[in-house]
């Protein structure tokens, strides 16, 4: 096999867009095909989502660069989006999206099963087992299994229902605490409610073309187990190494760092990422979706770039301060009840000044997360990818707000590139993930913080922390 001629059919199902491309094992990427994300539609019917994914696959098969037969199929996508299924893998309810706080009322019950007393942050809204408990309460019985949407789509391709070990790692709890099987037993749930785990960068199974309604030429093509979009994106950014820091800037923001050993930090998710490497960080609820909200509410637009453009036009010397939590916050606060608020607004302020407050508020919220991670001021650059990395002003604003260099990835779609790398590794083209990552990630653009702006944000960060703490104190009383 000539690696230069090999092509992997890679797909990325996001919350706002569905993307696909033919990707070579050395990172060369053909035309990127895009479609509206079926996750943006009301109802979130799993079968309708499958049909949208299959349609894009069929479009890719008709692309000029399509090979006679793919080397593999690799699917990644948004995480914490769950499907409740029966014993045959059929959906029992609409897909539960990432942003739905379903399960938050089960936080105390779940935390108790994990042996946690007091602070239940992270055990309610968005937690898969909390959602499982709420489903059982609502429906009178538990489903046969709960799986991430990506896993269920792979089931439609291969007939095998499994989940990736990285996503499953969220259920591990504290190192000295009970494991997932014991937690499930304490909750009165069978271990089978969680499908078997498969490591990312392994072959999940072979595509069953007739069952999937796809051309016979695809029958038997290997389907790789990829983890969620953040996992794949970190590979495509070249960020997966001890000490490196990343920022996946999309509808929501995902921030993290890597180390050779696990460590516990309040509000942070610690997961095994690759053999011998641990991830610390997690998803924020805030991101480009917040910029899009402001554009819809105040600028007659639906484009995050419109908010940034308005923000950059602000010339006031006393911009308002914004807590940007229009849909609550996940990492590092895990508080679905938080709301957005503007502070120190004056009659002289305009929409441009409010837009600036939102943009700066997002950067300050994410700076707080990086501070919790302990990576501010360490000299390491931030590896940045996602749609936000392509927006004018946004990467530089973050470099200034964080006081650290921002390194922009070389791949136009790092999630697709990372999915292809995982598949190539699973097929033995590369000996491991690190070798695959190093093979395609050479050269990048680095943005450095402007000293005056960095000093400005240091002062604003203290104000932001004070206002946020006051707000948190009020929400807890």
Automatic annotation (TrEMBL):
Source species of the chain: Candidimonas humi
Stored InterPro entries: Carb_kinase_FGGY, FGGY_C, FGGY_Carb_Kinase, FGGY_N
Domain Carbohydrate kinase FGGY N-terminal: 8-236
GO molecular function: kinase activity
Protein name: FGGY-family carbohydrate kinase
Lineage, uppermost ranks: Bacteria, Pseudomonadati, Pseudomonadota, Betaproteobacteria, Burkholderiales
Keywords from the named record: Kinase, Transferase
Keyword hit for DNA damage: no
Pfam families on file: FGGY_C (PF02782), FGGY_N (PF00370)
CDD domains for the chain: ASKHA_NBD_FGGY
């Amino acid at each position: 096999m000539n690696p230069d001629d090999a092509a992997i059919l890679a797909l990325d199902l996001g919350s706002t867009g569905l993307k696909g491309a033919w990707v070579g094992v050395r990172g060369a990427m053909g035309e990127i095909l895009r479609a509206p994300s079926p996750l943006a539609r009301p109802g979130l019917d799993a079968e309708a989502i499958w049909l949208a994914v299959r349609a894009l696959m069929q479009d890719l098969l008709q692309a000029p660069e399509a090979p006679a037969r793919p080397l593999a199929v690799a699917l990644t996508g948004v995480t914490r989006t769950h499907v409740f299924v029966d014993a045959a893998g059929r959906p029992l309810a609409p897909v539960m999206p990432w942003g739905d706080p379903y399960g938050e009322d089960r936080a105390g019950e779940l935390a108790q099963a994990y042996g946690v007393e007091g602070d239940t942050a992270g055990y309610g809204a968005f937690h898969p087992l909390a959602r499982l408990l709420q489903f059982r309460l609502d429906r009178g019985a538990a489903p046969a299994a709960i799986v991430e949407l990506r896993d269920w789509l792979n089931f439609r391709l291969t007939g095998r229902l499994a989940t990736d070990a990285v996503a499953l790692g969220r259920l591990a709890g504290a190192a000295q605490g009970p494991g997932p099987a014991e937690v499930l037993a304490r909750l009165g749930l069978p271990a089978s409610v969680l499908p078997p785990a498969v490591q990312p960068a392994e072959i999940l199974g072979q595509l069953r073309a007739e069952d999937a309604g796809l051309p016979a030429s695809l029958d038997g093509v290997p389907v790789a187990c990829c983890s969620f979009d953040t996992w794949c994106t970190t590979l495509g950014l070249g960020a997966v190494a001890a000490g490196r820091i990343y920022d996946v800037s999309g509808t929501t923001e995902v921030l993290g760092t890597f180390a050779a050993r696990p460590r516990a930090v309040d509000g942070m998710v610690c997961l095994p990422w690759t053999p011998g490497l641990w991830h610390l960080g997690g998803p924020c609820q805030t991101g480009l979706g917040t910029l899009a909200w402001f554009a819809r509410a105040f600028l007659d637009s639906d484009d995050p770039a419109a908010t940034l453009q308005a923000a950059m036009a602000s010339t006031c010397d006393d911009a308002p301060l914004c807590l940007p939590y229009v849909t609550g916050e996940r990492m590092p606060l895990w508080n679905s009840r938080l709301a957005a608020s503007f502070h120190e607004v004056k009659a002289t302020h305009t929409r441009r000044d409010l837009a600036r407050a939102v943009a700066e508020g997002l950067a300050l919220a994410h700076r707080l997360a990086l501070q919790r991670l302990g990576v501010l001021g360490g000299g390491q650059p931030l590896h940045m990818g996602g749609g936000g990395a392509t927006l004018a002003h946004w990467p530089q604003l973050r470099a200034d707000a964080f006081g650290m260099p921002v390194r922009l990835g070389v791949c136009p779609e790092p999630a697709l590139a990372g999915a292809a790398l995982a598949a190539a590794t699973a097929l033995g083209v590369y000996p491991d993930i690190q070798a695959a990552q190093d093979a395609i990630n050479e050269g990048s653009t680095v943005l450095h913080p402007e000293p005056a702006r960095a000093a400005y944000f240091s002062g604003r960060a203290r104000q932001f922390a004070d206002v946020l703490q006051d707000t948190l104190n009020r929400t807890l009383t």
